[in-house]
Design a protein that fits this description.
Radius of gyration: 14 Å
Number of domains: 1
Number of strands: 6
Strand content: 35-45%
Distance between the termini: 25 Å
Length: 111
């Protein structure tokens, strides 16, 4: 099992928003509170990020999806495996699944 370290903001049972790296690229997993549900959604929205400055990472991360290089899709929160603290690392298997889905959707556009 391979693990990738995470940096997160906001925590409610699990990180609500976090950044991690996989194969040299940075990714944002975002699960913002949904006022209509009056709860957090059951999935993370996943974005590939460009290089971000220290200033980009200061304060709230609510604006980070708007800085994303690409939206990759959604993954169920239950499918993201965290380390036992739920604050340090995720299992990278989620990327194999997510990127395989991207390959099926856009086989011509992958690097």
């Amino acid at each position: 099992m391979d693990w990738a370290p995470i940096r997160y903001r906001d925590f409610y049972d699990l990180p609500c928003i976090f950044i991690t790296s996989y194969e040299g690229k940075d990714y944002l997993f975002d699960c913002p509170f949904d006022d209509e549900l009056d709860d957090y959604p059951k999935s993370y929205r996943v974005y590939q990020l460009p290089a971000l400055s220290k200033e980009d990472l200061q304060g709230s991360w609510e604006r980070l999806p708007g800085l994303a290089a690409a939206f990759l899709g959604e993954v169920p929160v239950a499918e993201v495996q965290f380390d036992h603290t739920k604050r340090e690392r995720i299992n990278t298997a989620i990327f194999r699944e997510l990127l395989a889905q991207q390959e099926m959707v856009m086989p011509c556009c992958r690097e």
